[in-house]
Amino acid sequence: MNLPNKLTVSRFVLTVGFLVVMFSRIPFHETIALVLFSAGGLTDFFDGEIARQRKLITNFGILMDPLADKIMVCSAFIAFVDLGWIPAWMVVVIVARELAITGLRLLATSKNVVLAAERYGKHKTISQIVAIIAILVVASYQDWGIVGRAVFGFGLFGRPWSLWFTEISKWVAVALTVISGCVYLWRNRALYMDDL
Questions:
Q1: Most CB atoms within 10 A, among 106, 113, 148, 195?
Q2: Best CA proximity match to 76, nearest among 109, 110, 44
Q3: In 58-188, which residue ranges form alpha helices assigned H by DSSP?
């Protein structure tokens, strides 16, 4: 197994660790969850960069990298619904898009076609990761002492600026999720239109 694929697999492990810590009662569990999720986000960046630079692109990576992203992101958003940190409808939109695209990829595989990730999908994933990290920062920065409160609790229009940023990042993530899903389904419509 090459390095990019190892990084992809590590994202599954980091997701499990993130969920275990997220629902634990250990001290600073939100901060630890933030670190684990951020590490997962970094593996998403590095596995693609290394695969392209070293020409280590494989069918395993093409299929499993987006799947690892979807599992990591959807797990975090679903956990946040349970904690009341994000509206359920936003997560339904995100998860529905991910399931639809995964279904399209499976259909493509059955026809011996491998669908690689597209630019819109990459922007969508980045926006989702940013939103999740922002939510975790808002949940945990009070534990970081005076520095955390000074940096992330600085007021803007009567609320900490990090709260404004988090709200905006949620909406951007949902918007890019919908747009990228529609573009992906439209560009690959030949795969499913023949079966209708």
A1: 148
A2: 44
A3: 59-83, 88-110, 119-140, 145-152, 161-187
User: The tokens of 99 are what?
Assistant: 């399931």
Pairing of strands 159-160, 155-156: antiparallel
Distance of CA 125 to the CA centre of its chain: 5
Give the Cα separation of 79 and 86 in Å (integer). 9
Domains of the chain: 3-193 (1.20.120)
Report the pLDDT value the prediction gives residue 120, as an integer from 0 to 100.
81
User: Does the pLDDT of residue 55 top 70, yes or no?
Assistant: yes
DSSP for residue 54 = T
pLDDT tens across 137-153, in order? 999 999 999 999 899 98
CA 84 – CA 78 distance, rounded (Å): 10
Non-local CB neighbours of 107 within 8 Å, separated by 6+ positions: 191, 192, 195
Structure tokens at 63: 């299929």
On whether the CB atoms of residues 129 and 44 are closer than 8 A, the answer is yes
* Average pLDDT for 170-194: 90
